[in-house]
Batch of 3 targets.
Target 1
Amino acid sequence: MTDVRQNALTIDVEDYFQVAALAEAVSRDEWPTMEYRVEANTERLLELFSERDVKATFFTLGWVAERSPGLVRKIQQAGHEIASHGYSHQLVYTQTPEVFREETHK
Ligand SMILES: [Zn+2]
């Protein structure tokens, strides 16, 4: 009998000011003016995962991928899975079908 154990690890590649809890405090128009920490934080995670031979799925915000294509390449080159976390972090159940389509396409 084979004992197969598997763990799943997912990461949201987004910045601290993009979380839903801060949506009222920081508008999307303000995002470009906020301190951008996601690159350094994600690179630190990549180092830690590399040291321990851990793979994860990185749900990446389109807004971040657009600003940091090199970061997305580093995640992919390290052997992790890239997944979509939407474009602008809008809760999917608040989107119209048109907005969902546009967010997904972007
Ligand atoms: Zn998120």
Target 2
Amino acid sequence: MTDADLLNAWPFDAGPPLPRLLRFVDALAAGAGSATAKSSGTMESLGTFNRRLARLHLQLVGRPLEAKVVCACGEELELALPIEAVAATADPPATVGIDTPNRRSFRLPCLSEIALAREPRALAEACALEEGDALSDEHLATLDAVWSAADPAAEITLDFACTACGVPIHAQADLALFVARELDMKMRGFLAEIHNLAGAYGWSEAEVLMVPAARRRLYAALIGGRS
Ligand SMILES: [Zn+2]
């Protein structure tokens, strides 16, 4: 995967982060001629996609993701997202079951279904692997808990105590938002380099990107020193 591949795959629009990241992941897979290019991230569970985002972030950006949380006491706290832990999560099971009172099996909801924000009962029936007992509200709550336990990377939670007042704080982080922001900064960094080097040496975008990253930085320093 070259810097040009990354730049070509990145959607430079201001849309919501999750669809942009899905398009990015699909474009990278298609560009790499991956056999799984057809199996879009939208068919993955949220946890599986979060794991993919965490690995992508570690591979492409690497630096810790810091979330800012403001406590009720006014203290502003910075916390690192558990990105390594998310990247290391295991595959969720293909199916889970609940007693209704007969056993019913369900697959995990995939991203495209979650994005539709379907009503819980419709979502449960869409994920049911066979017909069975009617689902009560209690069953739906149980299924939701079973789904969460089976796909731990779906929810990225931060549990800590405020350093100023000691109150325990429970916060949830939207990983897609953080990863999209970091990748956007990285891609805009490429654009700045291209702008700089193309202007100074008359190279094309493709020519600039063919220069290894370390050498691009050295050229940029030379250009900076000359002006
Ligand atoms: Zn506090």
Target 3
Amino acid sequence: MKKVYLYARFQRFWHWMQALIIFSLLVSGLEVHGLFTLMGYENAFHVHNFFAWGLVTFIVLAFFWYITTGDFRQYLTEGNLIEKIMMQVRYYLIGIFMNEPHPFKKNEISRLNPLQRITYLMLTLVGLPLQIIFGFLYYYYNELVALGMNPDWIEPIALIHTLLAYMLISFVIMHVYMTTTGHTVTSNIKAMITGWEEVEE
Ligand code: HEM
């Protein structure tokens, strides 16, 4: 085994800030939705809007970082993407329970497997932007109606925003489980805290 540096300081900071922001958005959002009472509707509404702006700010910063450092290349896959994803899915469904080795080895220039690449890419380029757009459509609904938007659109906007929130909850649950499937149960989480991970030579 050898130790490799996988996550730069900014990346770890961004990851945990993102986790904190999304967790706060989910809790305050579900309270605004009426699922439980924790801080009161009014406070939950303000907390939700505050963290929404926080998320937008951090996404802009992170995009800038991933592009200027060239780290976005970690998300590109060479060769047959579908075939590689299927190899990883087969590993998670069967291989992992038979102690088979991971189909893709980690190193500094390739820390994510093909399934992680596509999942994180879809989350960052499709899921979160859609959620933010629908959130802002919801927030500025009165202004948009005054500008000529059909008022009946409020229902589908609210429905899609809620649906995406539940999809995000499913992502977080799966994501946390998946992070325990590394070399040891905590090796991936330690790497996301310290930056360093032990990988096979
Ligand atoms: C709550 C919302 C969360 C989001 C949106 C999120 C998103 C992400 C993304 C995009 C990456 C890839 C980073 C990269 O390599 O470029 C990542 C990696 C990782 N995340 Fe999260 N994360 C969240 C929560 C968590 C939580 C709660 C944990 C652990 C308790 C966690 C543990 C990890 C670990 C260990 C990695 C390293 C790669 C891996 O094992 O998949 N994340 N996360």
